[in-house]
Design brief:
With about 300 residues, this protein is of the alpha/beta class. It is about 60% helix and about 10% strand. It contains 14 helices and five strands. It has a five-stranded mixed sheet. A hairpin with a 4-residue loop joins β1 and β2 (about 10-20). The longest helix is centred in the middle third of the chain and has 26 residues, at about 155-180. The radius of gyration is 26 Å and the shape is elongated. The termini are far apart. Mean pLDDT is about 75; it is low at about 100-110.
Length: about 300
Amino acid sequence: MIVLGIESSCDETAAAIVENGRHIVSSVIFSQVDTHALYGGVVPEIASRAHMDACDRVIDRALQEAGMTLSDVDALAVTYGPGLVGALLTGVETRTSSPVRILRGEDYQAPGAGGVYPCAEGAGYAGGITSAAVDGVCARGGISKGLMYHYYTGKDELFCECVRAMFTALAARLDEYLAGANSGSAGELLSGFFMTRERFFAENHNMRVVFEDAMLRTPPQLAEEISRLRAPVKECNLRLLSSLLKLVRLREGVSERDAMLWFDAAEGLLPELLSRLTDGSPLSFEAAAHRVLDFLLFGIAAPE
């Protein structure tokens, strides 16, 4: 089946010829970025007029690049939502004026909010949030800007959803480890905890990218929200440290409450400390974890 797809949900007019639902024969995009840059954002009325001017030309170009005419097209698909109302109407009007069969909603359903953030997490923030732009996040994630803006206010909110999903999944893995770690020394407990964390990120590379942006390169405007989203992982870390207390002998004059206050204050430093100790170091990950435990419990100064 040959499908002509039309996209006009936000500030770009696009048309593509797709064969059998997967093979992109041609794809043409007319961008309005330069036009809207003057206003610091998308102006709906200007976007709608630009779509009207560009739609026919973009479709003709897509057909030409595919070496086809409209008579070769079996069906037509168009974005009808979510997106800017006036912009969407341009595509819909183009669709209804065509004699080609129209694909209905039952033929395809756009992903909901739960389907948007995995696209962004999977590829959108591969280069880090600081350098990411909405266009790049949507393009790499395979989602339209209209769909993204329907569910999220922008890249920051979408990034926070990626962070929430990452921390939730990581906490579930760490919780599973702690539930089964009933024996061993303090060093073995800490080493196993960090190895569980490392294996999680080895299996979920894109989540590692999100984690490093959230924890090591925290966007200032998102610091408070990221701290809140991190609560499930912080709870796992404090459970770990509470378990460590039962396996070590405290210094004279140090109460369990004092130790927990220290652990609570130092807990946020653990990811960065481990990252720095392993970055470019000949130490194995397990050895680095033991060194973290040594610093955490005994500090760096020799007793007098």
